[in-house]
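Subject: Protein record for review, amino acid sequence with backbone structure tokens
Category: Structural biology, sequence-to-fold work with a learned token vocabulary.
Format: Residues in single-letter code; tokens as whole numbers, each standing for a residue.
Body of memo: The sequence and its backbone structure tokens, given next.
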Amino acid sequence: MKPCRINGKIFEWILISRRSCFRAGVRYYVRGIDSEGHAANFVETEQIVLYEGAKASFVQTRGSMPFYWSQRPNLKYKPKPVISKTMNHMDGFQRHFDSQLLIYGKQTVLNLVNQKGSEKPLEEEFAKMSSGLNNGMLNYLAFDFHKECSHMRWDRLQILVDAVAETQDEYRWLLEGVLSIFCVSSYFMVNSDGKILTQQRGVFRSNCMDCLDRTNVIQSLLARRSLQSQLQRMGVLNVGQRIEEQAEFEKVYKNAWADNANACAVQYAGTGALKTDFTRTGKRTRWGLLMDGWNSMIRYYKNNFSDGFRQDAIDLFLGNFAVDESEGPTPLRMKKDWKFLTLPIVMLVAFSMCIVSLLLA
């Protein structure tokens, strides 16, 4: 929650992310959906603006690809995703989107996974089921984030923003009876008298593999486009002014979205988000690449050696696992012996010897 100033006008800007308690867990242990259609790492993010009694809101969602797939840790840097061959994918897929359409209205799915390599089968399965559902309320769009933005060409993200601009403008229900002279995006707005001016009729549902790094970048861009329209209609921005030109507010906006990315990522992946240098500064930097490499190393260790304990803790906390005292000592009372540290120590020594052999003749 940030008090902000543009053109001498002070308004409150708020960013809230709400994580679902269904199918909760950590990165490689919880993927896809459960039998009830609940998606892993499902998060609803709402951006709110308050100014002189008027209020505006813009909601987006993210969640794991809604069919039955897994990616269990196996000491490889990137375990191969596996699509279940025994489950009825369409049944779970329909359960998921029946719920989403009931709560949020129309859905535009932005799938940001790679369209080659190990991620390709997942994208193809998602596209096949989206077309198989044959529901006019669901619109599917695939965008190969890494391919389009390769070689630091992050300006190409504008291709996706432009592609969904028309859809974003359609997700509105204008109640004034008169169109505004400003670009009206999909959002909810009520004036200082309590009169509802517009309602949001649909959401963008973004996902990548983890629904963290790539997803957060895209969500921040869509939220900025919506905010541009909101601030103009409230009279905070003058006609022709752009949010990008407001240096003080831009800094607050970018840092808050980067902090949002980190908060979501720490719970699911164990570290802060990747690609936050772009979210904070608007461009990709070499220092950001180095920090991403460091976070990736930490994720590798946690995903393989400590996330199992974290998953157990989450299941215990949410009541998905009940301790039966008649079964003997619980894991909470058992002390870990030296065997739990053996493999991490061996790997650390091996890595150290590799570095030494590279540096010394």
Observations:
- Confidence is low (pLDDT under 50) at residues 176-185.
- The CA atoms of residues 271 and 298 lie 7 Å apart.
